[in-house]
Amino acid sequence: MAIRVIAIDLDGTLLNSHQEISQPNRDALEAATRRGLQLLITTGRRFHSALRLLAPGPYPAAVITSNGALIASPEGTVFHRDFLPSRTARLVLDASVEYRPYAVAIFHRHGRGQVMMQHNASPDGPLQWYLKTAPECLVQVADLPASLPEDPVQLMFGGAPASLEPLETQLRLSPAAEHVHLTWTKYFARNVSLLDVMNRGCSKGSALQWWLNREGTDASEVMAIGDNYNDLEMLQMVGRPVVMGNASPELQRDGWHVTLPNDEDGVAAAIETFALS
After folding, report:
1. What are phi and psi of 35, to 5 degrees?
2. What pLDDT, in 10s, does the model give residues 214-239?
3. Domains detected in the chain
4. Do 198 and 68 meet the contact criterion of CB atoms below 8 Å apart?
5. Alpha helix stretches (DSSP H) within the chain
């Protein structure tokens, strides 16, 4: 069946190692839109972080952010949200007290308060990243669960894989387990891993399915391109799953095409092979 929709991850996929969309990738996106194909960005990043990486266009029809918790237009119109209820977020944080220095609460708002961490946030966690890239969005509080102003988009824990991996088992055995979906993003070369805590049932795959239902498009008409564990649900549901050449071999499945790495314009190669030929 012909491809009608292209869903593309950002980090490690559409973005190269310099956090840029290369000109060949931009050219391929523009060619796809001229053919009438619909573009979707599907990322673990929060909405405002993702948006600043996409200009100049072509803009996608929608941006699926925070691993499926929010679907919005590039102009900011919200189509769908599946945020983590505050009561569930507090259950998670109560079950992971020793990991709170590595915890981040993400909110869908402009400016200060998009990102919330505790005063005792570890420099080995996401704190340094936000101080470097988005200090205007960061607020630090004494007690994270007591300070949640509203339902967060998600919770995230960041750190070295070896130190963070036990948290997954801890949360799966906690009272929060039945209320959440856990998804990993792992960058082994940088010794960094992110454990995202989403509302139960929330994933890139569920958000993509919501959008397809809205548009009247079948999943068999979709090509999805990704590189990390948080892309699995999306890749598993579409007719043409494509894995980046820089992805972990664990993400490769029988019948899944492996394109070039992100630093070799792998997105452009996949689009030219499956959508433009």
Report:
1. -80, -5
2. 999 999 999 999 999 999 999 999 99
3. 5-82+202-276 (3.40.50.1000), 86-199 (3.30.1240.10)
4. yes
5. 23-34, 47-54, 86-94, 127-133, 144-147, 161-172, 204-215, 232-237, 266-271
